[in-house]
User: Which sequence fits this backbone?
């Protein structure tokens, strides 16, 4: 790769040829203010706030489209550049309503940030402001034209990435405003929600999130979307121990800067009421709540008593690699079976993102379908995740169900079983028939890993406190397997993963640390093992 | 029908056929020596054609004055991809009405110019982008083009040479910004008429992503004459740096406004006093905008010694632009004129770049407030500062074009502003 070496604000930097000055500065930790430039889109160089001084150039140059050249001397903070930015920021505020107190973007707004950093203390405009009002763009998107900085990121996203041109600039000059072409607007466009993320100000906001939380009250936790097997890298934005919204997190191997609206909207289940909150035991009307200590002690005794009995396990494609691995380890320790089944919902078709074809809303509507397969689980049932459990339901040995809600199963599920253990989030008639009902955490409440459809192992982190006494499945299962085998309980998800990696060839050499925030792709043959 | 207001000082090269309906036909244009320029170009070849235009020193007549031959030489030598010649007939600079006259009186002059230009840059397709409001001109040109096609002057075999040059007329929707060269390309391609960032320059990535050259109507119209008579011939008029003749569009407070073709370097006061018959009503001169509304306003004193050539007007503190001379006498309310111009630019700003989108509209509102008698002296400082913030900070020069009259008017006619602000009096208002 050819490189060029240049000087930016007295620091020398070497970058690949074809790098813009803005990106080169970013590499040095220097943020050049920008609105119209977005790393996932083309740059029209129209916001005029990223202008920098380049020695020898007659006027300031837009750093987003000016390519780095050998020997260039660039100043992002020269008097001329700062004066110009101050001027441009003043222009931005001429018609901006300054309604930060009621704007959802407040606190993470690039206009607010730049004005506080470099703007004038007081604007000089005394003229009445132009008023557009609010426009429903359809889908989850509301448009406040008065806050708009006309960067056209949203228009370009729909044109270039979604390739579904539904937005445009109408009128011109200071009357210019973003609008939809047709009455339905963004309704039904599967990726339109991204325009809210890329809007640098509060012009495009989410109806779902409208006035729900202030940006500074939200905690951000890196995670992986659980809505399909693409495994888009996301952030959980949480407050009051509830997920308030999901936002995409950049990963160029998986989802770029984007995520689909299906995944984005599918978070309320994390906050759903009626969760299993404490371990309980006893069949039928004799079920009693209790604590983990007694539940696990009793369960351990039963497993020892039934040593050698055939074990059937039902996993879940939404459970972590660690949990599924621990489930198999327990089955092996108890009775020797080292395989299981899972059921998963499948969509009729997939939905690729035309301008970023790596990102596909997959047919498998669960995060870890490929992880389950990798560990030897076999998919049963239909595309609605129903049926296929006849043998398990009537099994007379040990039955362990992890994560599957069993919503389609009858109340006598596992009625013949010598021991029936249910681990999940929600109660159901079939779950209620278990000898032991153990509450486990959701992906938002635990750490773990998923394997996506590309065979990429990706970590997610804990963003919420577990509800009630729910515990991660890897911990519960790991403790039982450890006790049966005479080993210890894994102390962390990372340790659980390490043990699994040591035992399963495809994961060999991997660790949570090595996976980092962006994950690691398994060798192709391993992933489809 | 004769063309109104001819003057003996005029040197009629481009305007020779003005006023004569015969010149609108192929035969009529041939009688004036037409289609000899392209014939010679085809004879001497592409390179020599460019050299001839270079030798003439012809400068772009659209306003920037860039040497035409040099511009043509920027095009790739080998046509690996389609090349396009774009003729800018979106004449919309306030005060300018020369291209319209060339098209409606001598459409074949433009067609021949397009052939010469297309041939020189290796383009087999030329688009003439016409201003939406040019209804009559478009009809005349369309009729002439049809005839030229019929005579084999345009099309797959230009004058039997085997060279292919097609010409397409494209009528815009009347936006000023589509006269900016990259804005014109965007509009031609069917997009919003928004200028594009340069580089890449049109000669590398132009219309439809292909190497393109864009020339003004008057520039192209001059090239057949240059080819026919030679570059040196063209230099008999004008100055060293501004050779040739130029159409001057004179409007405002003169007795005989109109188009006058004069050698470049013609004294401004002679144009006003002699050619145009002096100021109407015998009033005194107050100000002149010499090159269309986008250039600095000149005070009467600055006009006295000014010669109308690129370097001459620059020396007098303004720019020749497209030589649209707007004459204002002592009854002119400068603040009102500048406010009206500001309104035009705010209305025509495409709205891409922030300084232009917000700055032109803001300046208009301040000027309106001053005109309404609610201004303050601080407003003048603010106006100058925001004008400076609008200069050199945008993709195209639309906002610079407003900044210039604002800054120059405040500098040169500060008393007019102060009188309005302090006493509500309109200096000069008739």
Assistant:
């Amino acid at each position: 790769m050819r490189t060029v070496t240049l000087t930016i604000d007295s620091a020398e930097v070497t970058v690949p040829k074809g790098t813009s000055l803005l990106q080169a500065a970013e590499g040095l930790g220097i943020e050049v203010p920008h609105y119209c430039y977005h790393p996932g889109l083309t740059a029209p160089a129209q916001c005029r706030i990223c202008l920098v001084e380049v020695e020898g150039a007659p006027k300031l140059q837009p750093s987003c489209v000016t390519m780095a050249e050998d020997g260039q001397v660039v100043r992002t903070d020269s008097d001329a550049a700062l004066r110009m930015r101050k001027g441009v920021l003043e222009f931005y505020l001429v018609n901006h309503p300054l309604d930060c107190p009621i704007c959802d973007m407040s606190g993470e707004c690039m206009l607010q940030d730049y004005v506080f950093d470099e703007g004038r203390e007081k604007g000089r405009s005394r003229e009445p402001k132009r008023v557009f009002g609010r426009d429903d763009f359809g889908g989850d998107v509301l448009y406040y034209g008065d806050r708009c900085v006309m960067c056209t990121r949203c228009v370009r996203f729909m044109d270039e990435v979604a390739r579904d041109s539904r937005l445009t600039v109408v009128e011109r000059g200071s009357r210019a405003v973003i609008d939809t072409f047709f009455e339905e607007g963004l309704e039904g466009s599967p990726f339109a929600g991204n325009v809210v993320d890329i809007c640098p100000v509060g012009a495009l906001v989410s109806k779902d999130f409208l006035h729900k939380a202030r940006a500074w009250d939200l905690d951000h936790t890196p995670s992986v979307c659980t809505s399909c097997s693409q495994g888009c890298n996301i952030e959980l934005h949480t407050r009051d121990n509830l997920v308030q919204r999901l936002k995409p997190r950049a990963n160029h191997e998986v989802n770029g800067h984007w995520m689909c609206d299906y995944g984005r909207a599918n978070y309320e289940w994390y906050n759903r009421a009626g969760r299993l909150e404490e371990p309980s035991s006893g069949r039928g009307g004799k079920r009693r709540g209790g604590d983990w200590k007694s539940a696990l002690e009793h369960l351990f005794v039963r497993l020892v008593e039934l040593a050698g009995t055939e074990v059937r396990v039902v996993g879940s494609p939404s459970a972590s690699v660690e949990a599924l691995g621990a489930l198999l380890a327990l089955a092996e320790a108890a009775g020797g079976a080292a395989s299981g089944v899972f059921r998963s919902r499948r969509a009729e078709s997939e939905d690729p993102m035309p301008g970023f074809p790596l990102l596909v809303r997959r047919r498998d509507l669960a995060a870890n379908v490929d992880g389950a397969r990798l560990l030897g689980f076999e998919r049963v049932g239909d595309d609605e995740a129903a049926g296929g459990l006849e043998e398990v339901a009537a099994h007379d040995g040990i039955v362990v169900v992890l994560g599957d809600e069993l919503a389609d199963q009858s109340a006598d599920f596992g009625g013949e079983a010598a021991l029936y253990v249910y681990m999940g989030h929600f109660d159901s008639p079939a779950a209620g028939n278990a000898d032991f009902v153990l509450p486990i955490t959701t992906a938002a409440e635990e750490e773990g890993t998923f394997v996506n459809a590309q065979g990429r192992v990706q970590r997610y982190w804990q963003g919420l406190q577990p509800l009630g006494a729910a515990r991660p499945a890897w911990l519960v299962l790991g403790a039982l397997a450890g006790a049966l085998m005479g080993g210890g309980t894994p102390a962390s998800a990372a340790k659980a993963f390490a043990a699994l990696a040591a035992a399963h060839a495809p994961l060999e050499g991997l660790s949570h640390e090595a996976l980092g925030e962006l994950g690691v792709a398994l060798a192709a043959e391993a992933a489809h093992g | 029908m004769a063309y109104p207001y001819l003057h003996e000082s005029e040197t009629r090269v481009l305007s020779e056929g003005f006023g004569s309906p015969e010149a609108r036909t192929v035969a009529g244009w041939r009688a004036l020596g037409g289609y000899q320029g392209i014939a010679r170009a085809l004879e001497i070849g592409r390179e020599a054609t460019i050299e001839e235009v270079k030798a003439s020193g012809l400068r772009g007549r659209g306003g920037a004055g860039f040497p035409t031959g040099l511009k043509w030489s920027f095009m790739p030598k080998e046509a690996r991809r389609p090349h396009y010649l774009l003729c800018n007939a979106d004449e919309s600079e306030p005060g300018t009405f020369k291209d319209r006259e060339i098209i409606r009186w001598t459409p074949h002059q433009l067609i021949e110019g397009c052939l010469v230009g297309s041939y020189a840059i290796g383009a087999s397709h030329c688009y003439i982008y016409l201003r939406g409001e040019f209804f009559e001109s478009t009809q005349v040109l369309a009729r002439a083009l049809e005839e030229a096609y019929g005579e084999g002057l345009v099309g797959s075999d230009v004058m039997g040479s085997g060279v292919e040059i097609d010409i397409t007329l494209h009528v815009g929707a009347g936006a000023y910004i589509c006269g900016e060269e990259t804005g014109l390309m965007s509009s031609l391609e069917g997009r919003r008429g928004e200028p594009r960032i340069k580089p890449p320059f049109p000669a590398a990535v132009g219309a439809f992503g292909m190497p393109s050259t864009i020339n003004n109507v008057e520039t192209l119209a001059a090239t057949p004459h240059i080819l026919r008579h030679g570059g040196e011939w063209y230099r008999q008029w004008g100055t060293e740096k501004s050779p040739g003749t130029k159409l001057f569009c004179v409007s405002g407070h003169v007795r005989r406004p109109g188009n006058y073709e004069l050698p470049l370097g013609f004294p401004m006061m002679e144009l006003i006093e002699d050619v145009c018959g002096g100021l109407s009503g015998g009033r005194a001169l107050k100000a002149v905008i010499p090159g269309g509304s986008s250039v600095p306003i000149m005070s009467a004193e600055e006009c006295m010694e000014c010669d109308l050539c690129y370097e001459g007007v620059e020396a007098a503190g303004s720019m020749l632009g497209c030589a649209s001379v707007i004459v204002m006498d002592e009854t002119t309310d400068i603040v009102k004129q500048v406010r009206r111009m500001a309104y035009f630019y705010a209305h025509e700003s495409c709205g891409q770049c922030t300084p232009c989108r917000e700055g032109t509209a803001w300046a208009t509102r301040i000027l309106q407030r001053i005109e309404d008698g609610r201004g303050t002296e601080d407003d003048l400082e603010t106006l100058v500062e925001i004008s400076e913030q609008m200069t050199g900070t945008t993709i195209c020069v639309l906002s610079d074009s407003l900044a210039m009259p604002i800054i120059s008017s405040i500098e040169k006619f500060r008393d007019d502003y102060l009188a309005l602000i302090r006493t509500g009096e309109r200096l000069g208002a008739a």
Remarks:
- Residues 35 and 151 of chain A are 6 Å apart (CA to CA).
- The interface with chain B takes residues 44-49, 51, 59-60, 62, 65, 84, 87-88, 90-92, 94-95, 124-125, 127-128, 130, 149-150, 152, 168-169, 171-176 of chain A (CB under 8 Å).
- Chain A has a mean pLDDT of 95.
